Design the sequence.
């Protein structure tokens, strides 16, 4: 990809659309979403016909399994900050359930570390 | 569905200079094709739903590649390939927050591109391991050469690897996790 193509596809394309999708808002009122906050659609049978295409798409993709904020952003090809605004709206409407990352103290819990080790060994 | 049925997530960072194999490593162990997303980072946060004042802030777009490993029904590990360019590092606090640890991938032909990542994780106290990516099986330096060149503490694992190979990438991850475990044990007052 040439620098010009990168500029037009990635930068210019995103400078306009995200703000349009979020109604001009650049930040969610919620600051507690992280890249790996997991999102699940609260009610798999929810009617999404009255929602915008992006919120409807989020409810659709998080129906089957929980997805991280970063995964939703990648699949929608939108910046993470825009997705966080959309998720804030969906959470306010009780349409999604989210779970913050496993809290890590300065030193992580030994049981958690062992669970990760076991999981990676079994890959 | 209640919140307790949503799994928890942890993350490990994969850092290193451009072209050192970060995305390849993520892809070799991920259960999904590595995804790419981006975030616009502003150095000062606005905190309100307004574009007022945005002019005064420096904004940059940072791309991240990442993969997923479902460890258990209730635990998911995400691997994030992090931008290697030094000028993006002011945003690493976000990225490093809540990370179990980090892998610094190094290329023996340009070890200097790993210095910034090593410094960063040392300063932040983030446990890390160094993976020396031996492209196409070339082993041009020993782990001890790399340790000396990067001035690494004895406690930092250094693993020669080929990140295209899943087993090799797993080995690097496990070396890091062993280091994390040692730290957790020491903090709990138990011998490693």
Sequence:
């Amino acid at each position: 990809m040439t620098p010009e193509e990168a500029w037009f596809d990635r930068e210019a394309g995103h400078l306009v659309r995200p703000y349009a999708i979020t109604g001009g808002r650049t930040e969610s009122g919620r600051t507690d979403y992280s890249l790996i906050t997991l999102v699940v659609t609260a009610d798999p049978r929810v009617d999404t016909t009255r929602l915008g295409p992006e919120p409807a798409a989020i409810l659709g993709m998080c129906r089957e399994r929980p997805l991280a904020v970063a995964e939703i952003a990648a699949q929608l090809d939108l910046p993470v900050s825009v997705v966080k605004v959309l998720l804030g709206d969906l959470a306010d409407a009780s349409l999604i359930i989210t779970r913050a990352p496993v809290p890590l103290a300065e030193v992580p819990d030994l049981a958690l570390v062992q669970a990760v080790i076991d999981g990676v060994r079994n890959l | 569905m209640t919140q307790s049925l949503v799994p928890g997530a942890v993350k490990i960072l994969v850092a290193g200079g451009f072209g050192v194999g970060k995305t390849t490593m993520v892809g070799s162990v991920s259960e999904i094709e590595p995804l790419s997303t981006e975030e616009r980072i502003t150095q000062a946060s606005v905190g309100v739903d307004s574009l007022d004042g945005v002019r005064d802030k420096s904004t940059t777009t940072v791309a991240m590649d990442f993969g997923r490993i479902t460890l258990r029904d209730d635990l998911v590990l995400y691997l994030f390939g992090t931008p290697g360019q030094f000028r993006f590092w002011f945003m690493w606090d976000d990225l490093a927050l809540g990370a179990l640890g980090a892998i610094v991938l190094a290329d023996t032909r340009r070890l200097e591109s790993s210095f910034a990542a090593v410094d960063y994780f040392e300063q932040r106290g983030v446990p890390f391991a160094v993976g020396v990516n031996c492209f196409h099986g070339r082993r041009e330096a020993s782990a001890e050469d790399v340790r000396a060149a990067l001035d690494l503490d004895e406690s930092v694992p250094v693993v020669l690897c080929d990140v295209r190979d899943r087993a090799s990438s797993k080995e690097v991850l496990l070396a890091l996790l062993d280091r994390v475990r040692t730290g957790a044990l020491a903090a709990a007052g138990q011998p490693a």
